[in-house]
Amino acid sequence: RISARARFLSATDLSQRLGLPHGKDEVGRLVATLDGMLERLEEAFERQRQFTADASHELRTPLALIRSRAEEALARNPSPEEYREVLQSIVLYSERMGEILAKLLFLARLDSRGKVEGEVLSLRELLEGVAEEYQEKAQARGLVLLTDFRDEALVWGDQTCLVQLFVNLLDNAVKYTEQGHIK
Asked: For residue 12, which phi and psi values (nearest 5 degrees)?
């Protein structure tokens, strides 16, 4: 009966369960285990479906704004200052799309490996690279980004995950620091 019911379960409708009693014997525990696995799969597929819908929405918005700003500029004869403003907004929307795509690629990479891989990394090198990337953004906002890497520190971790962590921290620091410096 377990085999017969399992054959009719489908990836398009993961709400189905074996529908057999969860007895206390080996077969009952197997049925309970399989029903539990189906429930976890359904939840995982639902999270993935929701994430895909959210990501699609997040990408559509900046893409629509880029297109509308470009079409608006092409439809009239703007001044050089107006062209500059349009291009600046397109750059901002493009950066937002790049951030979303980087997150999607990171998640896809994580999914394909099934786990985060670690290696010994120089924390100093990681931080210096990210800080260098953010120097210009900080200066553009009138901020000073200070770094002080006196000691070498080795860490065990995934380079992509750690860089993403430091990028998020510095991005927030630059966005939400009104004046002064970031150390």
From this structure: -85, -20
List the structure tokens of 81.
Answer: 């200052």
Q: What is the pTM of this model?
A: 0.47
Tokens, residue 116: 């985060």
Classified as helix, coil or strand, 19 is coil
∠ Cα 23 28 30 (to 5°):
155
Distance linking the first and last C-alpha atoms of the chain:
65
Closest CA to 183 of 145, 150, 132: 145
Buried b or exposed e, range 50-87, using 16+ CB within 10 angstroms: eeeeeeeebeeebeebbeebeeebeeeeeeeeeeeebe
H helical segments located in 8-122: 26-75, 80-113
* Angstrom distances, CA of residue 95 to CA of 17, 89, 157: 44, 10, 27
Convert the pLDDT of each residue in 112-164 to its tens digit: 665 666 889 999 999 988 898 888 889 989 999 998 888 888 999 888 788 88
